[in-house]
Amino acid sequence: MSQRVKIKALLQSQQTDIDVTVKGWVRAFRSNRFIALNDGSTNNNIQIVVDFENTDPALLKRITVGAALSVAGKLVASQGKGQNVEVIATDIEILGDSDPEKYPIQPKKHSLEFLRENAHLRFRTSTFGAIFRVRNSLAFAVHQFFQERGFVYLHTPVITASDAEGAGETFHVTNFDLDDIPKTDTGEIDFKQDFFGRPTNLTVSGQLEGELGAMALSDVYTFGPTFRAENSNTTRHLAEFWMIEPEVAFNSLDDNMDLAEEMLKYVIKYALDKNADDIEFLTERLAEEEKQKPQNERSEMTLLEKLQFCLTHDFERLTYTEAIEILKESPPNKKKKFQYPIEGWGTDLQSEHERYLVEKHFKKPVILTDYPKEIKAFYMRQNDDGKTVGAMDILFPGIGEIIGGSAREERLDKLEQRMDEMNIPKDELWWYLDTRRFGSCPHAGFGLGFERLVLFVTGMGNIRDVIPFPRFPKNAEF
Ligand code: 4AD
Ligand code: MG
Questions:
Q1: Using a 6 Å cutoff on CB, does residue 260 contact ligand 1?
Q2: Average pLDDT over residues 68-81
Q3: How far is the CA of 103 from the centre of ligand 1 (A)?
Q4: For the whole model, what pTM was predicted?
Q5: Is the Cβ–Cβ distance between 393 and 316 less than 8 Å?
Q6: pLDDT tens across 306-317, in order?
Q7: How far is the CA of 402 from the centre of ligand 1 (A)?
Q8: Total domains, the chain
């Protein structure tokens, strides 16, 4: 038997009339004659032509949707429509039977909800094959982008004792017997007896440790899982998600914005080049979905157009204060259409406001800077006005916030003062403060929510569909 060839390579083959072996899973079997076989290397199936008159009927019966096959045969130019080449089977081996009565993934349209409940098998659909190939390319492109620029990939810890964002939405890490938690004389949990001898949690961000690396290696980035116990059952939040966090010594807020914009464009372009077929498929999928919506809610651009638009336009940059002015005067605010009306300066923006700015007002990605210090984390650099900090959020159409970042407060006295005001325990973060004691310097960084990026590039509507096995409130299946 000849060596196995991946279906992607077969479909691109310039040669025909050669002996080939293909392996994969049956997507469909028509007329006891045509098998659509897929091995995940591409969204396209190879057609296998079965000589049913000379094939054992018992074997034919076992060629069912979902079964794993090894097929040896001849690659020939296809007579039929829809494909250039096909394989005339000479030998079919069933590697793994499927049960056509019970196999959940039938060759028909399934709802995304149904497929979420069958996440263990949804990779076998065209939609999820495309999504996870695009996700793979984006992850690779992230590394390539930073590696080309001399950044050091830093592996920051998953288990930490700090809550970098100060939002308190952490998952505890313990090896206590939960039925018998040791208590102190005063009745509090005795963490001294716990595994680490102190309270610990899953990290919400690798930033603080990333900053330590940047204070010696200059340019670093992290790319790892992060965990947040925020009880938000939305299409934009996960309890476990992946974040990319570059941290760069000597960078200003402007440099930080430039880096973020360049990175987003780079990785989107990479996926467009590398996954043209998948993105074309996802563009058609989205166009079909859009047809179900009322005319006035349909997107003006296709997925492909949106991605290309993003590459060819500068992101709009403005301050929080300027954004508030625009929002105050906006038609939805005046007509009281916002769920959270914009009354004045100082309140946090809700996603309805972010999406108004991006989708209706500017109609392109937006970078908002210089937010009120009260609504941002303690580590952000304080501006001279005493009211705002050097923060930047990047807002994307259909997504809202995709990146959050800032210039960091490098001045020890200012940082300590802000930590006191916000009740951030200085003693626990002594190591973080040490960087401000020994050779502190201006620096900046940001965090890109990887799944939000994948959402944007795939045009999917729910973040639970762009990570293999989503974690969200009341769900940790698979
Ligand atoms: O804005 P956030 O909370 O910023 C930080 O964690 C900083 N330490 C980053 C930094 O400056 N190094 O989170 C960054 C991004 C958000 O913009 C969003 O894209 C994503 O992470 N994100 C989530 N994605 C999915 N599910 C959640 N629950 C998310 N929370 C934040
Ligand atoms: Mg944020």
A1: no
A2: 93
A3: 38
A4: 0.97
A5: no
A6: 999 999 999 999
A7: 8
A8: 2
